[in-house]
Each structure stands twice: as structure tokens, then as C-alpha cells.
Specification:
By secondary structure, this protein is α+β, with helices and mostly antiparallel strands. The chain is built from 4 helices and 11 strands. A hairpin with a 4-residue loop joins strand 7 (81-85) and strand 8.
Amino acid sequence: MPRIRSNIVAVYIVRPAPSGDGVELLMLQRPDDHRFAGAWQTVGGHIEERQGETAWQAALRELDEETALPVERWFRIDRPETFYNPENDTIYFVPAFVALVAVDAEPTLSDEHQAYRWQSTQEAALSVDWAAMRDSIRLVGEAFSDPRQPGLGVTKFDPARLR
């Protein structure tokens, strides 16, 4: 029987589109020496369980480590992403978050990525290799059709109040 784990987070970084219509999503490309060489992804990583880190704390840390972007508002995606890894016979439940940044925000990349690009959510959904990530990107696009009033599928949260 497969194991069930929830030790990974995903973070979707969005900024208002210059056109004023919806948002752009930050996509990051893995370097050639990475397991997923050349793949375009969002921010993600493991929860540091031994340190007692929560999913939302991991999201904040991973965003800072991978992009160093200041966040204007945080949201959680109301349902986790799921996927199955046959290599370790594990089903993963991935808490996912959205970080809204300034319209002119630009990341500072860590060595975990070799390139970045801002894309419409439609373009970004077509550039990923994983169905769960594609579904979340589409949900983010719908929820942030008006970035001033995010809609269904996401809930605002304030990390400062959780500390």
C-alpha cells in the first residue's frame, strides 16, 4: 500500500499584469545539473520537519531562498496539489500558496534555477510538465483575474498573525 506524505510546498508568485488584465506568473527554470533539468516550475521545496517548520513557514522560506522577492499579500490555495511517485510508492499532498508581489518586481535567483520569466497564467500552464501544477496555475489565473479582488479558490492569510 502506498505511503501518504505532506512534506513539500508550492508557491505561485504573481504580479499584476502591465495590461491591467489579470496577473503574470513567475516561472523558474531548473539548471542542467538538476534532476528536472530544463524544466519550468514555480517555487517549491521541502518542509523542514526536524525543525518543526509548518507548511506556511516553508512557503515563506522557499520564496525568500529562491527569489528574495518582497510579498505584498499572501494567499493559500484552498485545496492541496496531489501526485503519486512510483519510485518510493508515495502519494503526496502539497499545500500550495500564492504570493502577490509588486507590478515591477524582479527576482534574485538562487543556484536552484538558471533562468526566469513572467508569463500569463495561460502560457505558464502550457509550460509545465505536471498536471497538478498546471491545475493550480489555471486556478490562480481564474482567482486573480482581478488582482485587487481575488476570487474563488484562494484565501488571504497573514503570516505575521500566525507567528
